[in-house]
Amino acid sequence: MKKALAILLLVQSGLVFSQQSSTTDDMQLYRVLNNGLWGYIDASGAVRVPAQFDYAFPFRNGFSVVRSGPEREGLRAFISESGDLITDFRFDRAYHFVNGFGKAVVDGKWGFVTETGETLVTFIWDAAGTFSDGHVAVGTGSFRDRRWGLLDAEGRLVLPNAYRRLQYAGEGFWRVSVDGENWALFRPGEGVLQEFPYSRLGSFVDGYLVAERAQRADQDGEDAPLYEVLDARLEVVYSSRLRINAYSEGIAEIREGDRSQYRRVADDTVLGASEGYERAGRFTDGRAIVGIGDNWRERKWGVIAADGSYVVPPLFDGIERFSGEGLARVRVSGVYGFLDTSGRLAVPAVWERTGSFSDGLCPVMRDGKWGYIDSSGTLVIGLEYDRAWDFVDGYAVVRVGSRSEGTRYYIAPDGSVAFGRGFEWAYAFKGPLAHIAEGDFDEGSFGYINRDGEVVWDPRN
Q1: Is the dihedral of CA 172, 178, 179, 183 positive or negative?
Q2: What is the pLDDT of residue 222?
Q3: CA 94, CA 250: separation in Å to the nearest integer?
Q4: Where are the domains of the chain?
Q5: pLDDT digits (tens, 9 = 90+) for 403-427
Q6: Contact, 74 vs 67, CB < 8 A?
Q7: Neighbours of 438 (CB within 10 A)
Q8: Which of 31, 103, 415, 445 could make a disulfide contact with 381, Cβ separation 3.0–4.6 Å?
Q9: What is the pLDDT of residues 162-201, one digit of tens each?
Q10: CA–CA distances in Å: residue 276 to residues 224, 228, 248, 263, 272
Q11: In 3D, which of 378, 398, 397 has the Cα closest to residue 386?
């Protein structure tokens, strides 16, 4: 029971991966359950919205959703951080505000409300997406026969419901298809920009998009697709008869058969191994992860630089992208270590499990016990815990004992126990407060602790 309810708490409180959460939503109000009804407190523990709702969701982007009545039959409303309802209870379903608009359902039809609670898009649509760049896709008809159009931020239809597919592609463009197979680009105010010449369209990444044109004759008169890299002006910066998988930092990843090759677009020169790689990642900050070997179980991974040379030779069973702290986790024969940006093994691969570096420290495990290392690989907090999680804003959660019966503590980077006590359940800080709970709890029996270690909400009191 405790295990199931702990998972439920994590999902509904928005904490991803339990204590490892690093969500930084700007929360002003925190939901609490009191005598079977939900309300909200502020960071000091003062009640700002008295417990009166049958359910309340966490705040996101300055707004939340509350429910009156049972889950299936109850109606939802939107509430602001001032504690005021901005709509009445009239929605069968309601979703968090995104880009200034809240999506909801009335009698099976979708629409949107503004941050003042006004109806922006009347509830007449069979489906709706999420606002992107001031526009949103809306659909009519059943799922199999649905046709999509586009509304602007005033609720006006700027593209009729005539398209089988309609998706935001970035840089103000939407990709549209009348049949799901032939694609064109649309930008509000400019109309459909081509006569559906593409059989595949990607999304803009760092100002560039990869497209595949429909079959056309090559120089030998054979039908073959043409792959293109387009910039935000829709000018072709590179094209190839071979498949372009990705483009970044002036380098295209070209796929032929079961191997990939990198080419510098400026002069069309091949980078790295001329025979290519079985797996090739996108270049980021002048580096790309590559994999060598036909058998994925035996494949070795390394990192190449923008000139094609190896920064990290392909010696590892697995390798991840470099983190913000300049380290990349690698796996060798089932144990883990970390590389620095020069390709040096800064942390020897001796750990059975690890977390991620944050605040200069990383949780590591060996022989069933957890501690923390610094970026040099030095064990600075000993292997004394049965579980340990990443540091978040100056504190990490550790556990002594089993998952269901153990005690959790907050520790500081020097390894000292914060607040002078432990908790049966404790989770990473999210803003000024963190979830804690004692005993066999059910949903809503969790409390909150502040950064001074004071329990600002204890539902048992």
Answers
A1: negative
A2: 65
A3: 43
A4: 1-22+358-461, 255-262+271-318
A5: 989 999 999 999 999 999 999 999 9
A6: yes
A7: 15
A8: 415
A9: 999 999 999 999 999 999 899 999 999 887 777 788 999 9
A10: 22, 20, 17, 10, 7
A11: 398
